[in-house]
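Q: My collaborator sent me two sequences in one message, no labels, and asked for predicted structures for both. Can we handle them in order? The first one she listed is below.
A: Yes, handling them in the order given. First sequence, followed by its structure tokens:
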Amino acid sequence: MEIVPDTSVVIDGRVSEQIADGEFAGATVVVPEAVVGELEAQANDGRQQGWDGLEELQKLADLHDAGDVAVEYVGRRPDAIEKREAGEGQIDALIRDLAQDRDATLVTSDVVQSEVARAKGLEVVYLEPHGRDVERLEIENFFDESTMSLHLKVGVAPKAKRGDIGDMHYQTIRDEPADEAELKEYAHEIEEGARASPDGFIEIDEPGMSIVQFRQYRIAIARPPFSDALEITAVRPIVKTDLDDYEYADELRDRLAERQRGVLISGSPGAGKSTFAQAVAEFLNDSDYAVKTMEKPRDLQVGSDITQYTALGGSMEKTADSLLMVRPDYTIYDEVRKTDDFEVFADMRLAGVGMIGVVHATRAIDALQRLVGRVELGMIPQIVDTVVYIEAGEIAKVYDVNTEVKVPEGLMEEDLARPVITIEDFETGRPEYEIYTFNRQVVTVPLTEGDSDESGVDRIARQEIQREIRSVADGHVEVELQGSNRAVVWVEQHDISHVIGKGGGRISDIENRLGIEIDVRTFDERPGGESGSSGGGGQSAPTTAQGDVVTPEITSRHVIVPAHDYTGETVEVQADGEYLFTATVSRGGEIQVSRGSAIAEELEQAVDRGKQISVVPS
């Protein structure tokens, strides 16, 4: 009797099992080279199923040596195109052709392969794929009630994060280092359990990395060459809450139930953002709202009434398109990080879907600023009207986001009125920040500065005055604010006539643009007669150590400042540590300044003088 096993039954380990049970005793096992080639490719890609299959081939070799069966390797290896199109059935066809040529019995655990083979008149033995419904994973023995995450790596003593939300400690939990055999056994059990159990699934299976969701555990298995050694990281929620456990519960319930909202839940890693998002999801579901989630990977611990979606075809944009056909009342988006995520969040919100987004941020205002440059400024309050900041598992701050046309706080002239986004404290209603366009730049101005003598508006005004004056002055410039709409500018003696301009025309233009009365004086007129190192208002100019040194590119139409690490962020551009201008970095990771503008001229002069240009987070 000759049998031809296909890839599925070799990976599953069923052939050696059947031989041990006496089913194929004395048979000739004809192993197609197509199977060997596919398993080798999978193993080279770091896929565990490839290694499982090669282990089964070794068992067959041992059975051959023991005289239980005869093992032959025949046929041809699949070429690169056939390997690439394995999912289209190319390798399965090679295996069927070999079984037909040898008049052998095809053995498979693939139901499609068995049906096609029978249709072609082949003799087939179909072995139902079996896995074990794991009641408990071995790695669960490392967890106690205070353990949030487990960290296992070959050659390293097992560690865990234990404690309460906001008070976690990364600690060694066993003196003996983990070895490769131990972690391979754990990894095999995790993946087999996820495949077999209705409570588990493999979220991501890429060369070198598998992400498994098994019951409440999210488990990442990293293998070389992606990682330097086999590593297993398992994370689970240690707390499940409902909205009543949080401050402002009644107010937030009323706000969320009033109408579909745009909410950002922000906080540091491990602060309890996802735990709060789960509580919000359960409340909305219990309040007769249709709730879905968008997650990659899916790890929110929500009830079965809430369907959890992941990236469709690797794209959250496709997931969003599908959800818009389903029309949920609310969608929980965990996590919103990249520009594409913010754009998807905005599109769904503007389509009328209530959106709850989970965002990493170290301050509540930072979550909102991440939208700046990614969506139109005036649309932000329509996309996000509430920001909730979580710290140590508690709600530390809630912001209400509104927009109105007004003169920004601290400015006086009526003709400076413009659309202003106001961020108010949810509890007191007191405005804490304003976001608006000032002199063609988007600025975020804090309205409360604590013990600082210089308000946020004063700082922005001083910087803009410095930028304007430096664009027409060669020497040192300092600015001293003397109220909300008046400033004194100190310049070198040789610059004063150029700054003032013929008949005062140049300084008048600057005053009209900024809405601030400017008195230009020389440093000789200043008490002490010396220029200081500060930029005015008692504030030292930021040093280049705070940012990244860059080399601007000057083209025929633009001066381009590279800022790849700050995509979508608002930054300051400095020359030798002195402020030049503020800008929002484009999606392409750069700032483009049109040549001929005052900003471009100042930047070009700084480059020509050999000054060090740097990009500093604003």
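Q: And the one she listed second?
A: Here it is, processed independently of the first:
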Amino acid sequence: MGLFDRFRRPSPGSAGPAAVRARLEGAMAKRRLRGWNPPLENINALVASGGPRLLARSRELVVTNGYAANACEAFASNLVGDGIKPSSLIEDAAVRDYVQRLWLAWTDEADADGLTDFYGLQAMVAREMFVAGECFVRLRPRRAEDGLMVPLQLQLLQSEMLPFEKTEVLPSGSRIRCGIEFDSIGRRVAYHFRRRHPGDSTDQGGRVIGDVIPETVRVPAADVLHIYRPIDAGQIRGLPHVAPAMVRLFLLDQYDDAELDRKKTAAMFAGFITKTAPEEPMLGEVEADLNGAAIASLEPGTMQVLLPGEDVKFSAPADVGGGYEAFQYRTLLAVSASLGLPYHLVTGDVRQANYSSLRAELVEFRRRIGQLQHGVIVHQLCRAVWRRWLEAAALSGALGLDDPAAARPVQWIPPRWDWVDPLKDIQAQVLAMGAGITSRRKVVEATGYDIEEVDRENAADAARAAALGLSYRTGSGETQGARATPATQPDPGDGAREHEHGDAAATESATEQE
């Protein structure tokens, strides 16, 4: 290498040795990183080995820890709210209205346990995603004599019902991985569910085949919906949403309990009596306890006269200090970041929040929630249920269509977002519609309603108001319906005030024009 080559600078498109080393700093094995040697394992191997323990700890944490329980409810309420609802895209208005009404009637019968409706099942699925990372929905066809509007119901199964440890190769060449059966090209063909929940001691039933009670039952994959968020390519089972924050929540809970017990114990000791002659009995001394230490009874507001040689030292327990709240705040802030939830939704603390900070964090949070709504809940649950429901309705004759595929086009409307300042948001939406930036359909659907249902209700309200001779004043000053009848006329005082207000508004408008 010549002198010129030795000092030649790298071209703008190339990277020198120093830049390459900087990029690969995480792969170095120097003193600081010598102890960092994580195994290069696939996520499925990690889930298979640590899944049961992770799941058990997650369920206990959500039940016993207040922050985890509150975060679980906040996650579910924001993910599905009162339900992600369908809006049929059938062109025929009469058929579309009939399909929507049939679906609405069926949602009340959707739960196989009869405890909630279809949208309540969505909330249960959302909670299971937070706690267990996954939920299984079994599609249960019903008989005609069951008397259902559409002979189909949904049964929710917890993650524990599919054994993590069931991994084997079948004689047919199919493979079972963590309870899921795959064919030779990697398609899911069946799920091997347990007959009973492994932690339910109240369920002792079981069907005997010969002398052996089968542990699992094979259910075709066409009858099972596996709802989970895959975070890695090739992932076959879900991970709890609370997993990144579990350790901090558990240790913080222990710390809070220890601090509370310490303060409680310290508050029980008002003072300690010291004696120069321990062999002499104390005034008011009672029998020694099991450890041999004498206890003197104390009552609130009592002053005890001591014998010569005795002294009293009052208890002065150490306080938690000024750093306790700051430590709690930083720890819970890290927990909130691990959960992907705003701090105030996890803790309920809005003391350090204002309009700008709340709006900034809610916008980012709702982007994440929107991703889960459309990529997981709608794609894995709602679309599949809608397709199977159409098939069941067509086969039973309830749909009234020869081809159920004609009714398949549908869009799913998530629940509306309630903003911090709804007036400004509505005004912004009205301006966007007037400028042609968005459509009225999108604005209405953003509120969680179907635009066609809203239009029908508006038309019915207007017709009813006109038939009754009612008149309402809107925000723009326009009236809806016919002029009010004398029976519905306001009192003279109100009319005078409205007249004065109208004159003042007219004067102000004329002034602005000048």
